Every structure is written in structure tokens, then in C-alpha cells.
Amino acid sequence: MRAPRSAVFPALVNADAIAEWRVPADMSSLVHEFDAREGGRYRISLTYDAPDATGKSTAHTDTYHGHFAEIVPDERVVEVFEFETDDPAVQGTITQTTTLADVDGGTEVVIVHDGMPEGVSAADNELGTRMALEKLAALVESDRG
């Protein structure tokens, strides 16, 4: 991203920014709860725009809740979360680690998911993460104006 870590990091720990960027292009986001501190909890719903898309929590929505396990300003955010679902194939705790590193002209952002349930398609997760990162880049790069 063509922005310094000091510009990218706040978008990782701000509820309004999260609602804007951490959602795939074909979904909308609602942040129910968001306490961005180590141990702080959050709850977010992502709703598919297409009426025929199937959610993990309800007919068209993926809702997940979790907590911030580690926050290192301008370096790393570690979150532990799980989908709210009765489907055993998508149940389980997921650890998401977002790491920021300096690169020439900006910041490299790497998001790693550990413990992804077998019912969550790796390809879909990768695509959704890439879409979200594109939105994050647009957000932080536009703020540089």
C-alpha cells in the first residue's frame, strides 16, 4: 500500500474503517460491537448482496465474534474469532494475524488465517481477503490526499 504503517494501522483498530474495508466486494458490513484493545471483544455481520448467496450464520449473513489477542501499534494485530453458526463444518476458532512491514514507498500488509474450519473454502477466503485488502489500500491511500 502506498501509505506508511502509521496511516494503515489505525484502519485495523477503528470500527468505522473496519466496516468500510474488511468486507468483500459483494457484501455489506455491520459492526455490532468493537473494543479495539487487547482482550477487547468485537462482533461483525457480513451480508451478501446477492439474494441467492448463502451465509454461514443465517440465510444471507456471516456473523462472527471474537477478541483482540495482541495489538502492537504500527506492527501487528492478532484476533481470535469464530462464526456464529450451527453448522459443524464452519465452527471453530480462527486466529487472524495482520502484520505491517515497511516496503519501498509504503506498507506491506499480510493477513494470515490459522485454524480455518474445513467448511470454509480456502479459495473463497483468499478472494475475500484480497478484496478487503484492495479496499483497505483505497481507504488509506485516499486519506493521504
TrEMBL record:
Activator of Hsp90 ATPase homologue 1/2-like C-terminal domain span: 2-141
Domain of life (superkingdom): Bacteria
Matches recorded under InterPro entries: ASHA1/2-like_C, START-like_dom_sf
Coiled-coil residues: none
Family membership noted in the UniProt record: Belongs to the AHA1 family.
Name of protein: SRPBCC domain-containing protein
